[in-house]
Every structure is written in structure tokens, then in C-alpha cells.
Design a protein that fits this description.
Blueprint (H helix, E strand, L loop, with lengths): L10 E16 L14 E19 L3 E6 L2 E2 L6 H12 L5 E9 L9 H17 L5 H15 L5 H7 L2 E6 L7 E5 L4 E10 L2 H5 L3 H18 L2 H14 L8 H9 L5 E2 L3 E9 L3 H8 L5 E6 L6 E2 L1
Parallel strand pairs: 3-5
Antiparallel strand pairs: 1-2, 1-12, 2-5, 2-6, 3-4, 6-7, 8-10, 8-11, 9-10
Helix pairs in contact: 1-2, 1-3, 2-3, 2-4, 3-4, 6-7
Amino acid sequence: MASTLVTAPLAVAKAFSPGHVTGFFEIPHGQGTDPLYRGSRGAGFSIDKGITTTVYVYSGKPGSKILLNGKAARQDEAEVSQWVVDHYLRNADRPYFVKVEHEIGVPVGYGLGSSGAAALSLSYALNEAFGAGLDSAEAAQIAHSAEVVCKTGLGTVIAEYFGGFEMRRTAGAPGVGTVDSIPLEGYKAVVLCIAPISTKAFLAGRMDEINSLGGRMLHDLSKSRSVGDFLDMSFEFAQTLGLANDRCASPVRALKSAGFGCGIALFGQTVFTIVPEGRAEKATKILKGFEGTLLVCDIDRRGARVV
């Protein structure tokens, strides 16, 4: 492998995808087998912390190497990224070796959309480096398909593609699903990441429970379009699914007692609130009293992009 990387790369490209927090969702029935038409409906918001991916394309023996914050990724850590790389290599005009460097700016496995952000930023960077000529939606569709096939997400990519505070009204990849953006100026997200949850493990056997609640909430939020209602719905959704117990309970109580609405990210033991900028310091001070990784973020309204 080392000999493959002796020469200078033929192309280098970099892209960024925001992280994302989902408050509630549903998975419509009868979606078929095409990954582009599979997905979730729901609501959430993108944050200005996410994943920046740089790709280096070399001539030579075909293959790839994926690094996470400078360290070689294990196979189970890079399944989605490997799927995206393999897709581009299969469609390349000749053999290439690809090195991928993911700079991960959000905790992984805590409901902050890291696998979708990795896939999306990677697809944008590879499209640029290979000169594949895909438009942004087409490049994002590859990332969405990777998530669906690898069973790591259903609605994260389209949310991160658009950015902002969004309602995903119809399921599917960018260019297929539809998103309604709700303006959200002058707010910050304060997020406490306490413990990770496996999305694959959690989704198993929970669909009926998830869908009845998520569908009703999306209907209600589409009428109110209120951040406060979104936070209340997110907490109710998590509580119904048993995510509001254990280590999330005390931070939630502390925020609520101080007058802050809050929710729990799907899927992780991650408590979050969205507050006007002037109240962010108070919310941050409250959550600093609890164990975990604390993030104070702006809402990313631009979505994924080449940088």
C-alpha cells in the first residue's frame, strides 16, 4: 500500500457536511427496494460542527485507505465511507487509489449525524476530485444510498444536504424527498453528549411505535412551525421510546426547571436545547454540571458543500 502513495496525487478535494440532530421521525410503509426512494420523514436541525473530508486520488493499483482524525479506520468504523469510495471507483475511467481523511468534529454515535456527514462530505469531495460531473443532489444521492444500504440512517443525508431547521415532508434522497425549511435566525444549540447508542440496534422492532408518534408530530409541527413545540415533541418522542431515562433524566430536569425546553437526539443519550443567543450562556452553565461532552453550536443553514 505504501508504494501506491509514493507519487503525488492526481487530484485533491475537500468538502464539509454539518452534523444533524433529529428530534422525531417516521418511516413510511411501502417504500420498495430502491435506496433513493427509501427514507424517513421527520424534523431536526443541522449544526455548524460536522465532518470535513479531504480525498487524495492516485494512479496505480486500485484500492483505498480511510483515516479518522489521522488514524486508520477499522472496517466497522468506515463501512459507509467504504461504500461511497467503492461506488466511485467502480465508475472511474481507470484504476485509482483513494486516500480519505475524515476530520470528525462531532462525537460519533451520539445522534449527531456523523455517518451521514461522513458519507455526504466524502461523496462531494470524490465527485470534485474525479471530475465526475454530478450535481450536488446526485452526489448526495450516493451518500444517502450508502446510509440506507449500510442501515446507519434514513433521513440524515437529505437534512444535512439542505441544512437549517427542517421538516422532511416526504421520504427519500435529495432530489426525491422533499424538505420544508423553517427560518431560525439568532439561535444556538447547546448539546450534551452523554453516551452513544447503536442506530442499527435501536431501530430493530420499533417501527410501529415510532411511526404512529412521528407522523402525528410532523403534522402538528407543520402547523405551528415553532422551535418550542419541536423541543417538546422531541422530548415526548424520546420519552415514549425510553430514551429519556437513566443518565439523560437529571440534565433534562435541570434544563426544564430553569425554563428551557429540551429534547433528546436520535439516537444517543444526548440532551439538547435550542435557545436565543442571549440565553445560550445560561443553558451552557446548567449542562456544564453534568458528565459528558458539551457542544455549543450555531445552526448551519448552508448545508453540505465543497470547501
